[in-house]
Design a protein that fits this description.
176 residues, alpha+beta, four-stranded antiparallel beta sheet, two-stranded antiparallel sheet, 47% helix, 12% strand, binds zinc ion
Length: 176
């Protein structure tokens, strides 16, 4: 297969294995993957990209891990789930029968999501995940993400009625 041209310079994109890939610009969560296959520019290491299907499967795995948490959703995870479903705050609020301000409050960390809203939000997200599971990339889960249940086991130790730890804590346990 002919190597792809780098979109940023004259270089070519070559297959590479990244030992630490910062996913924050791609998923909006502070997560660094310890080992990930992707493409790297032959001119500068700054130019890199992931296979689109791999990225899709990462987004899926994160959403799946979030809805399986026994602790209540923290602000950043609740926001992640809404964005993953492609909904605005207003659209999510309409679907849940609540006001947009309530959604904005828990996403902004002003107050924890209520147990009832947490339950409903996960129910809606579960439907989205079930639809996505039928896509071909669902079989392309990167090896590191098969460790997710183990990584999130730490989070499960928080009591169900308490807000869970931030994703920073989760990401730290993943790389450390
Ligand atoms: Zn380049």
């Amino acid at each position: 297969m002919k190597p792809l041209n780098c979109p940023h310079c004259e270089g070519k994109l070559m297959p590479a294995i990244f030992r630490a890939y910062d996913l924050e610009p791609l998923v909006g969560l502070p997560i660094v993957m310890p080992r990930l296959e992707g493409l790297q520019c032959s001119v500068t290491k700054e130019h890199k990209s992931l296979d689109g299907q791999v990225l899709e499967s990462i987004r899926f795995a994160l959403a799946h891990a979030a809805i399986e948490l026994e602790a209540r959703l923290h602000a950043d995870l609740a926001r992640y789930l809404r964005r993953y479903m492609g909904l605005t705050q207003q659209e999510l609020a309409d679907r849940m029968g609540i006001t947009r301000v309530t959604v904005a409050r828990w996403e902004g960390g002003e107050e924890p999501i209520s147990p009832q809203n947490d339950y409903v939000l996960r129910g809606i997200a579960r439907t989205t995940l079930a639809e996505k599971l039928t896509k071909p990339w669902a079989r392309k889960m990167p090896a590191a993400f098969r460790r997710l249940p183990e990584v999130f086991a730490e989070v499960r130790q928080a009591p169900p009625d308490e807000p869970g730890p931030t994703l920073k804590a989760v990401a730290k346990s993943m790389t450390g």
